[in-house]
Amino acid sequence: MPAQVCWPDTRHGIPPRDALDMALLWLERPVPTDGSPVRWGRPTGVVPVPFEGAGFPAFAAETGSSEQCEYLRGDLPAVSTSSTGWVLDCPVWPAPRRERQRPWAGASGSAVFCHGRLVGVAAEDNQAMDWRRLHAVPVHEALNLPGFADLALRHGHPGTTTALEKVTASNRATPLDGHQALKPPTASPATPGRASRGPQHYRLLASLNESDPQTEMVAFSPDGTLAAGNHDGTVWLWDSATRQLDGEPIAAHTDKVFMLVFSRDGTLLATSGGDKTVRLWDPVTHRPVGDPITDDGNVFGLAFSPDVTLLATTSRSGETWLWDPTTRREAGEPLSAHRGTQGVAFSPDGTLLATASYDKTVQLWDRTSRQPLGEPITGHTDQVFVVEFSPDGRLLATASSDRTARLWNRGTRKPVGFPLTHPGGGVLDIAFSPDGTMLATAGGDATVRLWDAATGRPAGPALTHRYRVNAVAFSPDGTLLATSDGTVHLWQRTNLALSRGGVSEA
After folding, report:
1. What 8-state DSSP symbol labels residue 338?
2. How much is the pTM?
3. How buried is residue 36: exposed, middle or buried, by Cβ count under 10 Å (0-12/13-18/19+)?
4. What is the pLDDT of residues 368-396, one digit of tens each?
């Protein structure tokens, strides 16, 4: 099964020699479990504590078992120590192999449990003891390190905490004195009463341009038309119901299309391109509306105001310009507060703007006064690509090259929950579902991930792609999801029924 290391952070290079020999993996497909949260333990006392686990040591392959799996068991004497941490005494052990090969090779990484509590991870064997002993890294040491606890809480089953229990040989587990347990993030105060739909599953419905994979951006119009902006400067329009092209492509720009967005009433389509122009189009006739808007640099952010009386554009100059879509003339002075601006969005009521920047911040603006509202929102550790308001305007979502998306309470400007991570690459695009219950994030790790907007927990399996995913968009009714890794993919939400035997498509 494909997996990626999500802790420790691989961007920091090879861990130092004294770092814990332990890692958390992000599985690309869900694994069936009983749904119970993990319980953490720390063996204690002078009497050895029974342990168990499962692994894939090299010697198991010689038993003829097709699974090559070995049931690990034995005693963990808490008073004994090794350079790694816990000592695991095994009553059944392999004989030395030819040329001093290590028979336990492959068992590294096996989870070690004592009385149902996860206490460590097998890390190495002990040649001096004729392979009768394994060593394990104590999990309580990892719980005290940055990132580990955050990931465990965010992606664990509901109810997961970092509470650590003492485990003794007498089959008793009690809370460990002096250990401060963390609890998983609760529902955002910005979304009172909002209920999650539960796990959401999307199946691939169609790949629209496999023979010509050159799409950078996608967007849905209010009537469900799907637009795709391409490297050759063209824009394709599809009927999302029939998945047929709507007429000939629009020759929008003389260089690649960076951004495209529909007005809320569906009467206009705005595009920006590598030719340093912004153009308006009639989505029905495919004809241009007026002359192009020119800029000194490439425009990476576009947003119509809800009343379609303003069009906001951003570029690396750091200024956000507001234009009258009717005249294509500047509507007042630009907004200047950033060092290189990328994303821009209007609040649903049209009173605010939000801008995202290369300077790792997001700034809120009053639309009428054109003045910044308070200090910039900080928290990302690298440039912020995109900013979006939730449909009710209470949340902000941001996407950054620091491999995270973040949710923010618009009123308090405080983060909601933990970062939404893409372990293998930056987050390049984000989209709220029309009902605001879900956030989709597109990443450089070739996945689209779905998140519950109220809790920040995963809302369904990741959607895997061949290449990095540049764009994601929900259809107006939320039943379709459009993504692009060069090829435009349409995903359809499926209705799932829960039963005692598992999950099935209804």
Report:
1. S
2. 0.65
3. exposed
4. 999 999 999 999 999 999 999 999 999 99
